[in-house]
Design goal:
Layout lengths: L1 H18 L4 H34 L3 H8 L5 H7 L1
Helix pairs in contact: 1-2
Length: 81
């Protein structure tokens, strides 16, 4: 999760650097991509917040899922919750 966040930050910085000297239509496209990256990072933060509250209400839910199947992915946990 942390690596993904760092990657998104790095991509955002690269995008901002590319905006300098670009014409209007390219700047608009770059801003759109930057917004999409930012939206993706917000979704991750929302999931972490949801997971925190979910675990408070449903004690050991994710631990029990892990006991059932160690190969579950993050998306599997999201779907189960």
């Amino acid at each position: 999760m942390m690596q993904k966040h760092m990657l998104l930050q790095s991509l955002t910085k690269s995008i901002v650097n590319r905006m300098n000297g670009a014409d209007g239509s390219v700047v608009y496209d770059i801003k759109e991509i930057k917004y999409q990256i930012h939206s993706g990072s917000i979704v991750d933060k929302d999931w972490e917040l949801f997971k925190l509250y979910f675990e408070q209400v449903n004690d050991e839910f994710f631990d029990k899922l892990k006991e059932i199947n160690h190969a579950l992915t993050s998306n599997d946990y999201k779907r189960c919750a």
